[in-house]
Amino acid sequence: MKGFDSVTIKDIARLSGYGVSTVSRALNGHPDVSKETKKKINEIVKKYNYVPNANARQLKQNVSKNILIIVKGSFNLFFSTVIEHIQVATDKAGISAIVHYIDEDDNEVKMAHRLCIEQKPIGIIFLAGNINFFKQGFEGIKIPCVLSTTYAKGLEFDNLSSVCVDDVGGAEKAIDHFFDSGHKNIGIISGEFNKANAALLRLDGCKKSFKKHNVKFDSGAYVESKFSISAAYEATKALITKNNDITAIFAMSDIMGMGAIRALMDLGKKVPEDVSVIGFDGIELASYYTPRLTSISQPEKEIAAISLKLLMDMIEKNKPASHVLLEATLQKGDSVKRFK
Asked: Three-state SS for 48?
């Protein structure tokens, strides 16, 4: 084993048998990591004198090279994958990436202000964000930042870049696939519009598809939900109660799609025989779910790489803010059946 000064989070992950994102969440006290997992990871950390905190490393090195990753929402498996890719890359570059999770309802910009004072980071990556919070309070943040998975071009801050998929186009592809499969009575489990900019954009994409196929969009055909399995489970039950004739449901995340499938099964409906389901994200777990979930896939490796590159370009090369929009693709599974 290397000397403890050179032990990395990737080493801790290998020794513990857990992924980098799991190790990171354990070290940051995240509630979705079991006590047993935390205990095992902490024992390895203690054995090899690994210093997981950027501030502690700074005391040794007297050099601040830490970036922050502020994650909105606690149970987003897509974000976990993006975080893992970012942390592996930053670790190789000798930069500490410290992850902070906040609730879906919290103000990520206020959190960033506080953390800038406490931890003196050289940059911040926001995973998801409420555009209104940035409009109202981002001006006071002066370090380079990247809004990842949310498009920020219209905000025009010199120190705020962004990268995300085309949420409108992705949702349009989902509804197009339903129409192409013969469905017309389509329901939607959406994010909460006042909290998630992506939810509004994806709803716009749904409406575009309805209009393109000359089908009237029924405002009663969707139910707002948090981006969680349990919330989507309840939202699906509410949706089916309002319209038991629905033959297809578009869920605005894969986790929500899984919650929707469980709710449909508990209501005595088969997926996809009675109701087809499409999710959004393309997380690995969705391809192992039963039935295998059809999803609008986001390129998580590319999003992670671009997020970090945009941030480091601003930090190291003093480049201006830039904005990247990626294409989302339809990832076919077993959860959509042709409706006759």
From this structure: coil
